[in-house]
Amino acid sequence: MKVAIIAPPYPLEEAPAPPLGVSYVAAAFEAAGCHVKIIDYIVSRYTPEKLKRELDTFEPDVVGTTSVTMNFPVAADILKTAKRHRPSILAIMGGPHVSFAVADTLETYPEIDMLVVGEGEKTIMELVPHVTESDRWPDIQGLAFRQDGGIVVTEPRALIDDLDSIPMPARHLLPMSRYRALGFPVSIITSRGCPNSCIFCQGRRMVGKKVRYRKVEYVMDEIERILSYGISRINVADDLFTSNKARVHEVCGEIRRRGLDFTWSAFSRVNTVDREILELMRDAGCDSVSFGIESGNPEMLRRVKKGITLDQAKNAVRMCKEAGMLAHASFMVGLPGESPETLRDTQEFSQSLEIPHGYHFLAPFPGTTVREKIEEYDLEILTDDWERYDANSAIVRTSALSPEDIEAFVGAFDREINDAWEKQVRDYREGRGLPEENFRVEGHFRMQLVYRILSEDLIETCGCFPLEQEPDTGTVDMLCGRIEEKTGFDRELIRKTIEDFIRAGYIKPARAGGNIAWYWTHNNSVDVN
Fold first, then answer.
1. Which domains does the chain have, with CATH numbers?
2. Each residue of 23-32: pLDDT tens digit?
C-alpha cells in the first residue's frame, strides 16, 4: 500500500524544525509495511497544482496529514484538494487539533474520511491491515469516521506506555538538505507527558499527565543518526525535560560517555532546575533553556494553575546565568482576568529578569481547560477562525481589557524591539555597527533570502539552463541573477548563499534532457520531491 504523508505549510518565521509528528506517523506506516512518501510543504512551495502532480506521480492509496490549530485550515484544504483530484484515496487527518474537534472537522470537511484521535502510532499500525475493510474500523481504538449517515468515534486508545515500541521518526523521508539550509535545530523527544495542569495547554491532553520515558540508549542512537545528517544543533522538545533529575543525569552522562559533539536547548520549568542540573546540562552541550513563566502577577499564576512562583522564576534565571547558560522566558497576555494592572506586573517582572523574553497572545485551543470551561473564567473568545490561533494577535477579551488593549501592550514592546533593530540595520549600512551586531544583521538578511528560496521553489524555477552552459561556472552566475530578479536581494549575498549551499552539498546540477537543472539533494542523494 502506498501512503503519502503531507507536512502542511507552516510559517518559516516561526522557526519550524523538521516535523517530528509527521516523521513519527511516516515511521508507523513504514513499520506496518507501507511504501511511504513524505510530501513536505514547510520548506517548499504549496500549490494545488503541485499537489496534484505529486499525487499523480506517486499514486497513493492513502493520503494523510497532521496539523496544529493554526495551520489546520490549510491542512484540511490540502486533503480536500487531494480527495477531489483522486476520489479513490482514503484521506486521513490526525494531530492535536482534530483530536479535540472531531465532529466539527468531519461535518465541515466531507472530503476527510477518517481522523486518528490522540497518539497515532499504534492506531496506524493496527489500521493498516484493515484499511480497506470499513466494517472492521469500529473495532479499532482511536478512530473517528462517518458511517450510515452519522459519525462514529471508536473507543479511546490508551497512551502508549512503552515509547520504545514505536519506531524512530522517519527523517530519512524528509528533504533534510532543505532543513539544513534553513539552519534551525532538529527537535527530538526523550519523553512524553506533563504532570502539570496549566489551563491553556493543549499538549498535556494529548500526551497525558504521566511522564513516559524512552530508553536513553535509544535516544542517543537517534541523536547519532541526526548528527550523521550534518546537523550540529538539537532541541529537546519534551514537555518538561527536567521533570526527573535522575533522568537528566542519565541523559547527560550518556552524551558525554559517547563523546557526542553538538549543542542543544531544552524546555524547562523554573521549579524543576537547580544549579547542579544546569551545570550538568551545560557540560553535556546544552547552552540555553526556555522557561514558560506566563505572567508577572502571582494571582494570575494561581488562576491559570501554572504551579510556580515569581521567586522560583528569579532563582532559575539567576542559576542559568551563574552556570553560563542563556535563559529565555515567554509570557502570555490575554489570560483570564487580565487587566492593566496584571499586564504592568508582567512587564515589570519580565524586564527585571534581564534576559531575552517575548510575549504571546493567549490562543484557547480546542482541548484546553480554558476553552472547555470558558464560563468559569473572566474571558470571552472572539473567533473560531483557526488561522488566527497563531498566538500573534488578540482573539479574546476580558472584563477589563479589549483585544485592542491587549494588542497595544504587545505592540509597544514590539516597537521597542523594532526600533533597536532598525538602528542596528542603519549602523550596519552606514559602517558604524559593531562586529557582533553586523554579524546579526547579515544573518538576518541571509535568513530572509533563504525563506524566499525555499518557500518559492526558486532553485527549481530559476535553475534550469541549456546544456551548453558550464554547470559549475555559467549556470551559478545565471542562477544568482535570476534569483536577484525574483527577490531583489543583493547579488553578493545571493552568490555567497548559493555557493555555501553548493559547498555543503545541499544543491547540485544534473543533466535533464537537453538542460542543466539544479536540484536539492535529499540526504546527500537526489531529492525526489
1. 2-153 (3.40.50.2300), 185-378 (3.20.20.70), 456-520 (1.10.10)
2. 999 999 999 9
